[in-house]
Each structure stands twice: as C-alpha cells, then as structure tokens.
Amino acid sequence: MIQKSPDMRALTDRIQESSHFIKDIYQELDKVIIGQKVMIERLLIGLLSDGHVLLEGVPGLAKTLTISSLAKAIDTGFQRIQFTPDLLPADLIGTLIFNQKTGEFTVRKGPVFSNIILADEINRSPAKVQSALLEAMQERQVTIGEETFQLDSPFLVLATQNPVEQEGTYPLPEAQVDRFMMKINIDYPTDEEELAIMRRMARTVKPQAIKPVVSPFTILEARKVLNDIYMDEKVEQYIVNIIIATRSPERFNIHKIEGLIDYGASPRGTINLNLAARAHAFTQHRAYVTPEDIRAVAYDILRHRIVLTYEAEAEEIKTENIIETILKTIQVP
Questions:
Q1: pLDDT tens across 210-237, in order?
Q2: What does residue 62 show for φ and ψ, rounded to 5 degrees?
Q3: Pairing between β-strand 104-109 and β-strand 116-120 as defined by DSSP bridges
Q4: Domain with CATH 1.10.8.80 in the chain
Q5: Domain 229-329 adopts which CATH fold?
Q6: Is the pLDDT of residue 2 over 60?
Q7: End-to-end CA distance of the chain, in Å?
Q8: Fold category of 35-216 in CATH
Q9: What angle is formed at CA 277 by the lines to CA 276 and CA 280, rounded to 5 degrees?
Q10: 166 HSE (CA, 13 A, CB side)
C-alpha cells in the first residue's frame, strides 16, 4: 500500500496551531520546576500519546512536584497514591459498602477514579495491588464486585520508584512493566540548576501556585491531531529495524551484542516508539517525523523492554549500552 503524502503546508499550520499550548505548559511549570526539561517533555509525550510513564530516580528530584504541577496546569483531576506493603486493592480501586438502612451494597470508588494518577513508590506494593492497577492501566476500566466502571479520559498513570532502596520492595513483573509506555531515568540537576533550586526553594514561603493554562478537552483534541502527523515509509521501516534488532541482532550484523539479550522488545514497543516519535514531533511543532524524533525517545521506550542474559549482567552491561549499539549500527534513512 503506497502512502499518499499530505498537504504539508496545511498540515504544518494545523500542527503549529494545535501545539501552541505546549509552550504555555512549559512557561507555567517554570514557575515551580527548575531544570528537568527532559522529564517534563516525556510526561507531555505520555499525555499526548495516551501512554503511562514510569519514573525512576533517587528521592528529592522533584518527580512528585512535577507530576502534581502538570495536573494543575492542565486543570484536570489528580490523585496521589502512596504505595506501601500493607496497601490493599480496595484502597486503590474502591470497594462495596453495606448499607444497613437499605440492606444493599453500594459502591465506594477509590482514588484511581481520576485523570492523572501518581503511583508513588509503586514497587513497595504487593502483587495483588499491582494487578489491580494493571486492569485500570490496560483496559481503562475498573471492576468492583460484579460491576465494571469505565475510567474518565484522559487517564494516565505516572508511577515512581526508588532504585536505591530494595528492602521491603516488590519488583514489578515484566507484564506490568511492559504496560508502561516509557521508563524515564531521572538524574541529578546541574551545578547551575542546583544553585537556582536552592535560591528559590530554601524559603519558608512556597513559590507561586500553578494556574490552569490548558483544558483536558485540548489534550484530547491534540491526540486526534497526532494521528495526522506524517511518517514516511522509510522512517516506519527504521522503527521496525530497531525493534527487530533487539530480538535478532545477528540479522543486522550486530555481533557485539549477540548472546546478551534474553528477550527483545514486543510489538507493543513498536507501537509505542511510533506514537512517542509522533508526539515528540508534535512538541517540536512539526508536522512530520524524522529519525531524530525516534532516536530521542528510543531509550525511554526500550530500556524496560529489553531483558538481558546472565552473561550481560555478569559483565555489568546495561540496557542503555545495548540500545546505544543498536542505534549506532542501524542505518538511518
């Protein structure tokens, strides 16, 4: 099937008009957040492409503050759920309450019934709680008793986990990790950003509050526009080649990583790499996808989808090393 090239001038005008709110969000978040531009951009990509995001980083890097500020800027529902080992599925999705006056059970909905869910330290919860969240993430619905409820749109789970503490944690199963569109590694700020953070935040009075600058309707409309962003066949094939290289590196003569990958990325990785590249182009106010869009988001899409062998772990090889080798080898269109 031959793709028909769209009217790029008209499409560009449409994309630039539809993506104007991106600048408004950045400006509003700048009132509270210093640095962390990559984290904010990736959260916006997840929001635009309807994909959940897993953030990993040590405490104190403004993960929670950024997520809550983003929810305020979008003027949408927000719930923060602190995951603990004694958390129950009912604490997350809700439960049935018996009404003694009527003699009937009524549904009490849990905090998952919101738009943006911050699952703080998600790896501290046991498997039952994680599986309860899984249905909400994948199906956008929740079952309480015999009744199923559809979740409001937009619905986005932004989860954090601490890579330092492992005591009392429950590692996320591969099936649930794969449900996250992206896994973002949050790093320390630069020296200049650290100084700016100290000057702004080392006060007894909090910084000015975030004001809503975008409506949820605008986000939902932007998602529709995302489907019209043009992607050339060669760029599509570039995505497929990257994914296949994570499964069968020998097909691309990447002998350096042969025997280091136990499992490569699933078709969900292909889909998400496509969507994230489109969303990245949208945040750049562009009407078409370039290979640089794909390379910009490839690490976040693939780092949690590549399972390394024991040999790779013994040699202290990380998934980032594998992705870097693949991107350096696969021919760019």
A1: 888 999 899 999 999 999 999 999 999 9
A2: 70, 25
A3: unpaired
A4: 229-329
A5: Helicase, Ruva Protein; domain 3 (1.10.8)
A6: no
A7: 19
A8: Rossmann fold (3.40.50)
A9: 85
A10: 1
